[in-house]
């Protein structure tokens, strides 16, 4: 089970949105602690959360989504209506069709290899800031690379270009991001990061598959007796800065964990 804040990070839905969905009967927590009133969600509920997000992105209202989730037979009628609307919006067809394709996939059958690894203690140069949105991450990387060049810092052979998402829940604005790379040497500007355990998925291609990636990570975490203990992390082996072709991108995604007691 996952606390509402952790579930928020796994689904990129704010806690406020999750409370709203609960009130509508759209996505109810798997269980609620009667003493603390803490809400807990299961890994399988990430599938429903991703369906809700995808349906919203292709234009359905929450009322329509609730009807479809309660009666899957209605989906075909709604799909037909949407296809007619998409023909009138030719510039948006590709993006919306991709979301429909995502809905038709079964996340439980997606083949992602999960590896539990220890990220060893290391020395890094980093920049951490509040940015307007996750789309502004590239600005932090540009700033970090300029800093490295200016200071003549020596990057390790395995630099582990890493983005850390520090917010305790998913945020659409004012996002707390940190970018960092491994370095050699000593400087007052460097910091030492302690080792930690992290289940990871290394995948190729665009970030549109991130919902399936986080679902696979959550299922592994739940099935293997671990709990999330820290922020979401992406390690970029081939990043958009290195290639403009999404097919070339290689990303390792995960988060810090600890064994359940």
UniProtKB/TrEMBL annotation:
Instruction: Name the Pfam families on file.
Output: GyrI-like, MerR_1
Asked if the Swiss-Prot or TrEMBL record annotates the protein with the keyword Amino-acid biosynthesis, the reply is: no
Instruction: Output this protein's name.
Output: MerR family transcriptional regulator
Which superkingdom is the protein from?
Bacteria
Q: What InterPro entries does this protein map onto?
A: AraC_E-bd (IPR010499), DNA-bd_dom_put_sf (IPR009061), GyrI-like (IPR029442), MerR-type_HTH_dom (IPR000551), MerR_fam (IPR047057), Reg_factor_effector_dom_sf (IPR011256)
Q: Which PANTHER family match?
A: MERR FAMILY REGULATORY PROTEIN (PTHR30204:SF97), REDOX-CYCLING DRUG-SENSING TRANSCRIPTIONAL ACTIVATOR SOXR (PTHR30204)
Sorted keywords for this record are: Coiled coil, DNA-binding
Any coiled-coil ranges, and where? 79-106
* SUPFAM superfamilies per UniProt: Probable bacterial effector-binding domain, Putative DNA-binding domain
Q: Which Gene Ontology terms cover its molecular function?
A: DNA binding; DNA-binding transcription factor activity
Query: What positions does the domain HTH merR-type occupy?
Result: 1-71
């Amino acid at each position: 089970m996952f606390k509402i804040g952790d579930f928020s990070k796994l689904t990129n839905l704010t806690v406020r949105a999750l409370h709203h969905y609960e009130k509508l009967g759209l996505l109810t927590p798997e269980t609620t602690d009667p003493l603390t009133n803490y809400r807990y969600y299961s890994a399988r509920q990430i599938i429903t959360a991703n369906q809700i997000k995808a349906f919203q992105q292709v234009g359905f209202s929450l009322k329509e989504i609730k009807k479809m989730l309660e009666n899957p037979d209605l989906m075909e009628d709604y799909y037909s209506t949407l296809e007619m609307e998409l023909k009138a919006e030719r510039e948006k067809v590709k993006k919306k069709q991709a979301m429909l394709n995502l809905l038709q996939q079964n996340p439980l059958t997606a083949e992602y290899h999960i590896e539990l690894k220890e990220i060893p203690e290391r020395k890094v140069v980093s920049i951490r800031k509040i940015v307007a949105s996750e789309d502004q991450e590239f600005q932090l990387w540009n700033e970090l690379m300029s800093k490295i060049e200016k200071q003549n810092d020596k990057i390790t052979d395995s630099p582990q270009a890493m983005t850390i998402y520090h917010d305790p829940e998913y945020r659409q604005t004012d996002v707390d991001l940190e970018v960092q790379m491994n370095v050699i040497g000593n400087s007052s500007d460097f910091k030492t990061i302690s080792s930690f355990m992290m289940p990871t998925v290394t995948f190729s291609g665009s970030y549109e598959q991130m919902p399936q990636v986080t679902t696979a990570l959550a299922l592994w975490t739940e099935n293997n007796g671990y709990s999330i203990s820290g922020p979401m992390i992406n390690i970029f082996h081939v990043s958009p800065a290195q290639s403009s072709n999404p097919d070339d991108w290689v990303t390792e995604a995960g988060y810090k964990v600890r064994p359940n007691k």
